[in-house]
Amino acid sequence: MAEKIKRKNRKVGKNRKKGWRSIDITDIEEHLEDERLQERTGGLVEQKPDEKLYFVDKDTKKPSTKKRKREPKPLKCFAILEPDPNIKPARLAHNKKKQVSKDPSKLPEGRKTLKQRMAEKQRLAAKISLVKRVKRSRNPIRATYDLWGDEETAVVEGDEHYMKVTRKRRVNVPTHHHNKTSKITAVEVPHPGASYNPAYDDHQNLLQSANVVEVKKLRQERRLYNALDAKFPKSDEAPTQKTWLEEMSAGLNEEEGEGRVSLHNQDDRISFNPAVSRDDQKTEKQQKKKLKVEKELKTGIKKKERKHRENEVFRINSLKKQLRNREKQIEENINRRKKLKEETAWKTKKLGKMKYQNPEVELKLSEELVGSLRELKPEGNLLMDRFKSLQKRNVIEPRIRAKRKDRYKKKTFEKKGHKQIVV
Questions:
Q1: Helices assigned H by DSSP within 57-199
Q2: How many helices (H) and strands (E) does the chain have?
Q3: Residue 347 near residue 185, CB atoms below 8 Å
Q4: pTM greater than the 0.70 cutoff
């Protein structure tokens, strides 16, 4: 083996991480490698007692003169595979349960092994599941309730084994899921006058209700017209340049004397504050007297307030009466609000920014009645009727159809250097 080349100790500063790489640590590595080898082969030598390092030869037998045949020594490469007697065995678990003997002969009479008991359980479970499958195939699941009824029906659960293995279960339904949002029926019965062959009175009542709705619309339109369009002149009555000049030049051609008189009369009506003279100013004595009066007035008001507060003690009965009346009024207000809330609980609410509007009354005029269902022309839209019903029952908020945005065609331009040459 080649001799180890001794490194020359360079004088490098060790106060920086950069200089640590130039430090010679070969002796430290050799020492650590020697310690690791000792730990692998029985432990550190310095920690072993003398009895393990040295032994006394007590052999008193005389050496035989016969030469024994030397046995071949084991190769050193196989020394690692042999167990080291100095290494202690691994620590066994102290809480390990005692295994019951599986030999049936060693068990008491009539007692079965664990394996036999588990096998019997599995056979019994397999037999029960087979019987269930056969019954299910012979008697398929049928709905035993009214599909279109109002009563709530229990949902049939899936296969028990499938639910157990896949760990699937029904999602927890929120508490308010089954609460009704309105007492209004989902499908309202139409007015008798809306029939294809209605009675005369029923048809007239329907026409009267539709007339009331139309009158309200006309009044609203008239109110808007009076507030907006009626306040502005029409195009033929609008002022022209000529009328504007006449209006602006009114009063300029009158006589000058009349103008002067009017100006003079106007000046007479103007009032000015009178001048303050030295005689009107208050003397020092008068000012002190005024301050004294104001001070007495303030002290008198304070005394009156204090006396009023002291006399409140004698008003205990009246104050109690006022408190009783106040509590009674509060209780009445609470009951009134509660009653109002109960009344409006099932009415159509304002869920969004828009207000619910009742649909137009579907009817046929007297001359449009045919008396035959085959010749009848349908009124209204079934889809819109369902949509309005959901809004009326507070299921969805009132809404309008979104406006369609116009998409303009992209403009194309020709660059001067890429113009198309037309022959």
A1: 114-138, 160-166
A2: 10, 0
A3: no
A4: no
Cα separation, 75 vs 72, in Å, equals 9
pLDDT per position as a tens digit, 365-378 = 989 888 888 888 88
> Rounded distance, CA 326 to CA 259, Å?
69
Cα(215)–Cα(90) distance, integer angstroms: 101
| Angstrom distance (rounded) from CA 363 to CA 368 | 9
Per-residue pLDDT tens over the stretch 222-279: 999 999 888 888 878 888 888 888 888 888 876 555 545 455 555 555 666 777 777 7
User: How far is Cα 339 from Cα 326, in angstroms, rounded to an integer?
Assistant: 20
Exposure of 287 in the CB half-sphere (CA atoms within 13 A): 5
**Which segments within 140-269 are labelled E, that is strand?**
none
A 10 A CB-CB count for 376 gives: 15
Angle (CA) 214 216 217, round 5°:
65
Distance from C-alpha of 170 to C-alpha of 391, rounded to nearest angstrom: 29
Contact partners, residue 378, CB within 8 Å, separation at least 6: none
Burial of 206 (C-beta count, 10 Å sphere; 0-12/13-18/19+): buried
Closest CA to 378 of 388, 391, 368: 368
Question: Whole-angstrom distance between the N-terminal and C-terminal Cα of the chain?
Answer: 95
